[in-house]
Structures are given as structure tokens and as C-alpha cells.
Amino acid sequence: MTLSTRSWTWNLDEIVRNTCDSEDVVDLLKTRMRELPVDLSEILQVAACLGSTFDQATLCAGMSRSIDNEVQLNAAGIST
pTM above 0.85? Predict the structure, then answer.
């Protein structure tokens, strides 16, 4: 929003550069998920199987290893 002109403005080239070519949301999510670090992708896969509510101990048990890095959890959108 440009306040001086009281109108919306955008840079189409930047929008095209930062979006996926696909109009399909599933394709967009798959593309973005492939770009995630392997550890973060693994955390998200296990978390998806556990459901919407779980604790870190349950997540670690599902992964068969501990998650020492709280930053990884926060990046996955999981609060501890």
C-alpha cells in the first residue's frame, strides 16, 4: 500500500521470481518442502503423523533420536 497515492502497488517481476510456476497449491507446498533441510523435513514428517498435539519426548520417540536443537523445532513451527 502506497500511502501517498492511497493505492496498492506491486512489482510483478519480484512476485513472479518469488512464486512457483504452478497454480496448484499442493505443487507449491511440495516444492517448498523439498527445499527444507533434511533434519527439518524429518521432524515435520514425524510431527504430521503424531497429530496436532504432542510433546517433545513423544516426537523424539517417534524419530528414534533426540532433538537437541530447539531452533529446529521452532523452524518447524513446533513450540516447546
Answer: no
